[in-house]
Amino acid sequence: MARSQPAPRWAVLLSLVILIGCIVVPSWAVKHGDFKTCEQSGFCKRNRAYADDASAQGSWNSPYELDPATVHFKDGLFTGVLIKTTTADEKVRLPLTVSFLESGAARLLVDEEKRLKGDIEMRHGSKANKKRYDEAEQWVLVGGLEVSKSATLNAQSETGFTNVLYGPGDKFQAVIRHAPFGIDFQRDGQTHVQLNERGLLNMEHWRPKVDGKEGESGEDESTWWEETFGGNTDSKPRGPESVALDVTFPGYSHVFGIPEHADSLSLKETRGGDGNHENPYRLFNSDVFEYELESPMTLYGAIPFMQAHRKNSTVGVFWLNAAETWIDIVKSTTTPNPLSLGTSSKTNTQTHWISESGRLDLFVFLGPSPKEISKTYGELTGYTQLPQQFAIGYHQCRWNYVTDEDVKEVNAKFDKYQIPYDVIWLDLEYTDDRKYFTWDPLTFPDPKGMQEKLDETERKLVVLIDPHIKKADNYYVSDELRSKNLAVLNKDGDIYDGWCWPGSSNWVDCFNPAARVWWTALHKYDKFKGSLSNLFIWNDMNEPSVFNGPDMSMPRDNLHYGNWEHRDIHNVNGMTLLNATYDAMLQRKKGEIRRPFILTRSFYAGSQRVAAMWTGDNQATWDHLAASVPMVLTNGIAGFPFAGADVGGFFHNPDKDLLTRWYQAGIWYPFFRAHAHIDTRRREPYLISEPHRSYIAQAIRLRYQLLPAWYTAFHEASVNGTPIVRPQYYAFPDDEQGFAIDDQLYLAATGLLVKPVLTENTETADVYISDDEKYYDYFDFTVYQGAGKRHTVPAPENKVPVLIQGGHIIPRKDRPRRSAGLMRWDPYTLVITLDKNREAEGSLYVDDGETFDYERGAYIHRHFHYRESVLSSEDVGTKGPKTAEYLKTMAGVTVERVVIVDPPAEWKNRETVTVIEDGAKAGSTASLEFYEQQLGQASYAVVKKPDVGIGKTWRIEF
Ligand code: NOJ
């Protein structure tokens, strides 16, 4: 036997390094074992197997047919009974409705007759509701349900089909196939969305468990009944009850939306293969500790709304179901017949939606543009709330500011270093022993004094209030929750007990109207003692996060108000808390009505009406910084644009390069907040050494300079549902090269195109430009032009690459202040870039930034345009009872400067412009200065002190 050679020195060293690495490098990876894969989730596994069976059998026939005797169409409603024929030749009746809505959307709704009638037996003596959950819409939908009066039957339907013409100008048609059941949705004669085209419709009907006879049904029952995961057994008293459907987008190769996942904007395929995912995208609101990137794993929130996009056409679907949902995506390319000329290959995106329980409730949108989809979807689920002005400033958070003195010191330091901020946050530890609605008497003895100090500079405080209530004696919140029976119950009907931050806890059940009333009362100033009117709320852990629960949440057989099982309502659960908190904020004091501000971690479709969201516990790594951009963009196209990520990264310590770049990116998140884990080092911007401190301060000031543009963008979102920051495809829906781009963004319709630096040691950015307009560097007006290609823009560490597309007028405020509130009366600067026709336009929305008076006309909404050498401001607002009074308060607020980028060369010789304000007796003049620049950088001209009123109609003639 050969003697073993001693290992060479390098190998010993290497092993040592690896060994040390194993000991000291913390593991930063998500615990996969804590969260189900599709294979571990019975209903997902069954439906995937169903899909495999269907595609394996060449001539698969979906066993769902409309009973011809039941089919009926009247007043925009198509009704009928779907018959499912089971393997045992049993006929299951499933009542179906397709509603054609005035908005142009269509809704397919399918329920189960037996369960509607309550004609089923529950196992384990369960008291759970027998119906399929039919209340999700009460939480989610707020409008857009008016049924179309003009929808008509198309006389040319073939036998066995019902064709309905609907939508604007009857351009849409639903071709309803009776057997097997399916619907093709067409626009202008072309099919854009197909339901049950692959035959994967599956409504698992109720059936009894026949003990001792498992398998006799001829089906694999191994996942039908009790299911165990993570040490918890789900009793599943109604057995299998999933609902699934395939939705195909023929000719579409990109699909977007269905947050929340840490993944690319353009969603990936999910059935394996190179670069694809192995698991479907999962929607099951969960507290995923140290989540991983490029993953279809579920995260904290869920919006089952998807947009499919191809050149010049966008369509969408919204799957209204509150239970756990998985979505498989595959793309198939059809190759054309080589003999037929003029045809090209096309990609179809096939999706498969699978939910654990509930009804089949699907909305179909036919666009044709992304903006139209945003509008119609927003009519249903509501638009983003118009936040208070302070809420779009900078938020400073960490877990935790440790005393009220600490808060005051941080506040003072921001001023000392001249860094603006609006809100300071208190995480968990401000409470007395993690009892919400209390203050730690030792560390926060004077909460009022602290809030009053903040108020001196119009700053606010946000405190954390979670839905788990510490189970403790002598804590009135706990006593009341329990004695009034307002908590979530376990499957046996007893108060559910779980583990969270405070230890043993109970959860408020906001499905219960009485619980919401109670929750509202807790926030009143006399109950939440020490809170003042500049205090707002952060609802965290509302998935709900339960440390000892399955999938880090509640057992699915827990019971909520109405005896709904937790499985039925899981994904809307977090939103019910937000609604209650929203009401609470409105009712803190009689007569004091200001717009609430709430931050939420868990969300569902509709949460945009009441809260902002953030992407949860990210990490201080370059990859997480990069991932935040598509995540925020995705939220925007899914109708919840008030979104952001923890600036700096929650876990671990960013170095100053990463932190600087994160601030430069973070100023473009609609919700802009720095946050950090309790174990991290302090990293308030003023603590960072120079020159990075100045770089960060400059970035934050840029956010404040553009607050007028941001607020206008929020206003647009609040009336049209448009994203506040938009991806390339949304801004240029006909440029195929841009569809998958998700590392640059546009600030609403301002023409600002931003490409934040998201990688280490990078000093340039390659900005993709779609059209042939000129684009000007925001800071020095360097010109970039050339459609369909990338342009290299310098990005030294003190600069975030921002371009302005030609053709825009951007409102700004250029005077640095300590907070947004202090900028209220500051004058405006307008920056103009001209397009190819030497024209430009833009808009500005302003109100008091605080109350709801804007609903009664207390606002200014101006449209600016520049045409034929005249800049004018026109009113686009509607008047209301409060308009005149508001305009009076704003009478002294003017435009102090107009900057025109790339003006005509002949302006060099001009010294003045004529200013004509409506109502003024005569025009006046203002000075014009021309600044010539070196080659490659556009010249610019500045009108100084035109001093026209921001709320007035005026013209400036050049
Ligand atoms: C979890 C949240 O995601 C995090 O932001 C917060 O700091 C901790 N909970 C503590 O409250």
TrEMBL record:
Q: What are the annotated GO cellular component locations?
A: glucosidase II complex
Enzyme Commission number: 3.2.1.20
The pathway it acts in is: Glycan metabolism; N-glycan metabolism
A Gene Ontology molecular function term of the record = alpha-1,4-glucosidase activity
Looking at the record, the residues that make up the Glycoside hydrolase family 31 N-terminal domain are 95-328
Glycosyl hydrolase family 31 C-terminal domain residues are 721-810
- UniProt KW Signal keyword: yes
Name the reaction it catalyses: Hydrolysis of terminal, non-reducing (1->4)-linked alpha-D-glucose residues with release of alpha-D-glucose
Name-wise, this protein is alpha-glucosidase
Q: Which organism is it from?
A: Penicillium arizonense
